[in-house]
Amino acid sequence: MKIYLNGKFVDKENAKVSVFDHGLLYGDGVFEGIRLYSGCVFKLDEHLERLEFSAKAILLDLPMSREELAEAVCECCRQNDLQDGYVRLVVTRGPGHLGLSPDGCGPAGVIIIADNIQLYPEVLYETGLKIITVPTRRINAAALPPAVKSLNYLNNILAKIEAKKVGFQEALMLNDKGEVAECTGDNVFVYSKGVLYTPPLDSGSLRGITRGTVMDIAEELNVELREQALTRYDLWTADECFLTGTAAEVIPCVEVDHRAVGSGQPGEISKRFISRFREKVTRVGRMI
Ligand code: PMP
What we know:
Blueprint: E1 2-5, E2 8-11, H1 22-26, E3 29-37, E4 40-42, H2 44-57, H3 66-79, E5 85-92, E6 109-115, H4 123-127, E7 129-133, H5 154-165, E8 170-174, E9 180-183, E10 187-192, E11 195-198, H6 209-220, E12 224-227, H7 232-236, E13 240-245, E14 249-256, E15 259-260, H8 268-280, E16 285-287
Parallel strand pairs: 7-8, 7-14, 11-12
Antiparallel strand pairs: 1-2, 1-6, 3-4, 3-5, 4-16, 5-6, 8-9, 10-11, 10-13, 13-14, 14-15
The structure holds 4'-deoxy-4'-aminopyridoxal-5'-phosphate.
4'-deoxy-4'-aminopyridoxal-5'-phosphate is lined by residues 33, 156, 182, 185-187, 206, 208-211, 244-246.
């Protein structure tokens, strides 16, 4: 495996960063998870725009232009002979002193790893995922905007651990008002009485690229979509529920907090969105 590290391709064993990098010391940096489908980097431009926004939000100057980053992502896929896979693009604040201040840090580090990923077993796309609400709340936007895809994922990691400890693969996270925010690495959708709902970004969700794709599909399929604050009750009583994320793609969710969603089986709308999503992924993006 060849890793892109600050302008060079190096073997996995030699892909090393400084212990003084604030990305490691403080989670000071930003990242993207991107999918490659049949040689097409899905929505690469949207991912790079979100990376730029995340970097801007944390006052980190990206050391490469959008085009340079795009080319590096594609080249990393080519170097690893990948046609399908998952690309992790990471930008760190760079090596600095032991204090918190990023003054004196740099240059920013750019890391690209192209590999494979399977977040959930294939059978769950047929049978559906069961999720549970966990005590850890989604971080407040006044503390750190959840829209920033930063290297500091402890909030989500704690929620993931809590879910796993009680036998669930994914956690539902609420915001500090008790509204549904998102799952640890996925956005949430419910379908109720002919309308598709997802929490607005100010409920504490990331502006998911897959979420955006599902919104496009809703328009194509003439399904009414509302961005609206949701409670757990809305999920328990929905006809259908599904989660969206780059790694998870679109996955049906059939149980929330021990309550079956709808019939307790993946619903027809969820199946239509999953198949339309799978058709779309090789068409929207950049060929490597
Ligand atoms: N929420 C969080 C917290 C995430 O980490 C992710 C995955 N990046 C998502 C939602 C889904 O976003 P996307 O569809 O862009 O992968």
